[in-house]
Amino acid sequence: MTVAASQAAAVEPPPPIARNWTRTRIAGHVLVGLWILLGVLLAVYLVTAWNPELFRRYAPTYASGLGVTMTLVVISTLLGALLSIPVAAGRMSRNPVIGGIAYGYVYFFRGTPLLAQTFLIYYGLGSFRPQLDAIGLWTFFREAWYCAVLAFTLNTAAYQAEILRGAIESVGKGQWEGAASLGLTKWQTLRKVILPQALIVALRPYGNELILMIKGSAIVAIITVYDLMGVTRLAFSRSFDFQTYVWAALLYLVLVETLRHATEWIERRITRHLKR
Amino acid sequence: MQSMLTLISWGPDGWLDDIAYGVFITISLAAATLPIGLAIGFFVALAKQSDEPSLRLAGNIYTTIFRGLPELLTLFLVYYGVQIGLQSLVQLADPTATIEVNSFVSGMVALGVVFSSYASEVFLSAFRAIPHGQYEGGHAIGLTSFQTMRLVVLPQLVRIALPGLANLWLILLKDTALVSAIGLSDILRQTGIAARVTREPFLFFGLACLIYLVLAIISSFGINAVERSVSRSEVKR
Hints:
By secondary structure, chain A is an all-alpha fold. Chain A is 79% helix and 0% strand.
């Protein structure tokens, strides 16, 4: 008995399955090798093309460009979040007129390119210069920066309204009924019962929207705002040095990846109570 | 009012013929990008759902890079990068040679890689929605893995991935507006020229937005038709 038990304990685990060099494994290693090669080539290129003069001249402008990009994204996302609340309310309204207006707003801003919307506001409103002058708004619409903020706010409000609506509608109807039976008002229900559940659903889409805004913000360079893309274009047109674009690409990648991982971390943290 | 109608009429006084050419360029660019993006996206998704960790890593690097870069920057990287790269290659052979990279091809490549990195995520989640028993069943009746993929998995994959891909098509249609920045005569560039020449920017950029909206509406009709025809083969429960 004891002998059998000790023998059972001594039984070795099965040997690991030998991993042969199958075709997929070879292909995978070749592809990873290719990426490593590309990375090394990029590093070698950046080292050989290193130009202290260029760096001293443009590093501060890149920093300010990054600041402009982030300011633009943060301001327009926050303003868009405010604007998205009435739009989402309109989308969920039973009144066909209000619902129709909100639907038209969302459809227009989601169905046309952000670049075309920015042009429509920045160049297009120039057609109404006399009228805008008369009400004193021309100084606002003359500046590319304000036009960019306005266009981005209107655009992201449409997307965020759909995120908000989707999240609120994802919470079951029974939650509303349960809260009503407890005597909570509609507003209390929304604030204490619905939103805490809806925002968990909405977190990932909100993170994606923020990333899309950062990527989309590159187009303001076309209307002469000196964000990260704008200073890159300027540096390239003056130096004809391709590394200006490579540095911008690295900065954008770091920004987006940081944000993506931050969203994932927050999501893991606020859904701890849902994990078993 | 009469003058505005003249401006958007067809012919030497109006700009409609120029804008129609822009619509043609936009549609052909999007249509040319779609098959490339779908094909690359499918293979990247195949790599990302394989059992082999190195293949998954390679696929994930691809998605991370091209999903993280702004589309406009990708476009410039392709347009100028390929031009400079080819130029230095050609000048090894002939120092006086110059190379001009076609902006249509650059746009196609840049939008194609962006589209494919998003499409690979759509295909990946569709792959995960197909139960493992489907592969085992295909194996059990003696199909090779290629045949299983083509005859068993792919028809289901298309049906599951279609809504996501339709969404990506609408995004692609909007992203084509960026090629106006590298000088391709798409809708936005043609209307921009018209706006500058006629000094009627609101009219022409508004028209551009309306054209994009109409294209999106036509697309959603097309997508509905495709969805109907694909869902006909679905199992009725």
